[in-house]
Design a protein that fits this description.
Shape: globular
Radius of gyration: 22 Å
Oligomer: single chain
Strand order of the largest sheet: 1-2-3-5-4-6-7-8-9-10
Largest sheet: 10 strands, mixed
Number of helices: 17
Strand content: 5-15%
Distance between the termini: 31 Å
Structural class: alpha/beta
Order of helices and strands: HEEEEHHEHHEHEHHHHHHHHHEHEHE
Length: about 525
């Protein structure tokens, strides 16, 4: 599953997210107002893009505050179905960190997307403005947006608001009866989506979001736009470039989705990659055995981890007024360490406190910060991925594939299967094949990628690279974090490539599929 790049979650279950440290560092941006930069049916064929129709008016920007950041906000009505542009409309919520450079030095608009599918993108405008060099950020109107169905966009998709309430059935089924309970949950969730939003589901594909991006471009009054996308946002970028290549000015793809595996195969690839990252976490905890006292070897730490999981299955941690932590909530929380190693000290400390003294406060804090699920994001994640391409409809295949993966990569195998299981019963049948990505004729594209990324594995990113002949990739050797640019702590080597590219269009000139390399930042030090 790709995941959004957002505080508290870095995605499988889709695709991932900005660290909390980075988000909290966002300065309040200049909020001075600027002018604009400026019925149901079957979805259109994936290989026959539908042109967008320019909105009749420009965007009406007004000051707003999102996540503590001062921004400009606006809304844009777009067609539900682009084959009928005068028909039913839905609304996108937009944000802008406005350019501050003199008018003759500005470079237009930079759209940003954090991933998901389902991640809210409005705060990313502020995060990107903060993370880029000021001289570069000042030259762009940086535009964030909540894609259709997400967050502040209208409608916001929700299929079962209580789906994550209370202790859920264990992701790892102990029997056929337990598996049937989980299958029933997946079927019920898909049915709830159809019952509540059946009119919207056929129009929740990545291609629909790409058309929305082009509507935003038109509303901004731009002939071409620049784009920065993370995780699933890189797939959205690839689809936009395939459908609207002549409207791409510059494009940065950070932690790139393999478009060939969308989406069933990509999720299985994630399972193996996340096993590598959790094992790296166990090894790191073992290297600090004197600090955490969870074992001096990776195997000993792994045993401690599974012991905690078993205890939570038998005796979930009750929350004072809501959240409860059982094995699924534990998994969802610990999973975030696979996205970003800056979470390792807090996760290890919570695990140690729980096992050594029975203290539940640190674990509850980590769950609230990192592991708590957002049902709107989950609903959109399913709506997009289940409709982009048809998934296997025979549960026996899911069962066989998951059990095969579980034998060698148990950490995420069943978790990921159940996170996506509604796609086996989804009311919308996607096409047999996902959109063929075509990169011929595009301007230079910059890709950044960690060689040990779990959510978007390196081999898949290189497959995407081959489909984008104008792209140049900066590989972070030994980098396992999901999202390599503009993060905290900053990898200045990566950021320098991104800043230079957005400033001048310059890309590295190395040959082959690895055009430049950067060193990964060192693993964090243990903290209480």
């Amino acid at each position: 599953m790709p995941s959004p790049r957002r505080p508290g979650r870095a995605f499988p279950r889709g695709t991932v997210t900005l660290t909390a440290a980075f988000s909290s560092a966002i300065a309040v941006l200049m909020a001075g107002c600027t002018s604009a930069a400026s019925g149901t049916g079957s979805p259109p064929s994936p290989q026959a893009p539908v042109a967008t129709q320019a909105p009749a008016s420009r965007l009406d920007w007004h000051p707003c505050t999102i996540g503590g950041a001062g921004l400009q906000c606006a809304t844009l009505a777009v067609p539900l179905d682009y084959r009928h542009p005068s028909g039913r409309k839905i609304t996108l919520a937009l944000s802008m960190a406005p350019a501050t450079a003199p008018a003759d030095q500005r470079q237009g608009d930079l759209l940003v997307n954090p991933g998901g599918p389902g991640g809210s993108g409005r705060l990313l405008a502020a995060e990107a403005a903060y993370g880029l060099d000021h001289s570069v950020a000042s030259e762009y109107n940086i535009i964030g947006f909540d894609p259709r169905g997400v967050g502040a966009s209208v409608p916001a998709l929700s299929c079962d608001p209580s789906f994550f309430a209370g202790v859920r059935p264990d992701y790892i089924p102990a029997s056929q009866a337990a598996e049937r309970v989980l299958i029933t949950r997946a079927k019920a969730y898909a049915a709830g989506c159809e019952r509540r939003f059946g009119w919207l589901l056929p129009f929740m594909t990545t291609q629909d979001s790409a058309r929305d991006m082009d509507s935003i471009r038109a509303a901004l009054g731009q002939q071409k736009i620049s784009y920065l996308g993370y995780s699933y946002g890189t797939y959205l970028g690839q689809v936009y470039a395939t459908m609207f290549g002549n409207r791409v000015r510059r494009m940065v793809l950070d932690s790139t989705v393999d478009p060939r595996g969308a989406w069933y195969a990509d999720n299985i690839s994630q399972d193996y990659a996340f096993e590598g990252r959790i094992q790296a976490f166990f090894a790191w905890v073992a290297a600090h055995a004197g600090f955490y006292r969870l074992g001096a070897t990776r195997a000993q730490v792994q045993q401690a981890w599974y012991r905690a999981r078993a205890q939570l299955a038998a005796h979930p941690i009750p929350g004072p007024s809501g959240p409860t932590i059982g094995p699924d909530e534990f998994d969802d929380t610990m999973l975030q360490g696979g996205y970003d190693n800056s979470y390792w000290p807090g996760l290890a400390a919570a695990l140690a406190a729980y096992l050594h003294t029975g203290a539940v406060g640190p674990m509850m804090n980590e769950y609230r910060a990192l592991g708590r699920q957002n049902e709107n994001e989950f609903a959109v994640y399913n709506a997009v991925e289940c409709s982009d391409v048809n998934w296997p409809r025979n549960w026996a295949k899911w069962n066989a594939d998951t059990r095969r993966v579980y034998r060698t990569a148990p950490f995420e195998a069943w978790d990921n299967a159940w996170f996506n299981a509604a796609c086996a019963f989804w009311p919308v049948h996607g096409p047999a094949r996902s959109l063929a990505i075509k990169g011929a004729g595009l301007p230079p594209i910059l890709m950044t990628q960690g060689s040990l990324d779990a959510a978007t594995p390196y081999q898949g990113a290189q497959a995407a690279h081959k489909l984008l002949p104008s792209a140049r990739m900066v590989v972070v050797e030994g980098g396992g974090n999901h999202g390599q640019s503009l993060s905290a702590p900053a990898n200045l080597c990566v950021n320098n490539y991104v800043n230079a590219y957005l400033a001048t269009g310059a890309v590295p000139h190395g040959a082959g599929l690895v055009n430049a390399t950067c060193r990964a930042l060192p693993d964090p030090s243990p903290t209480p």
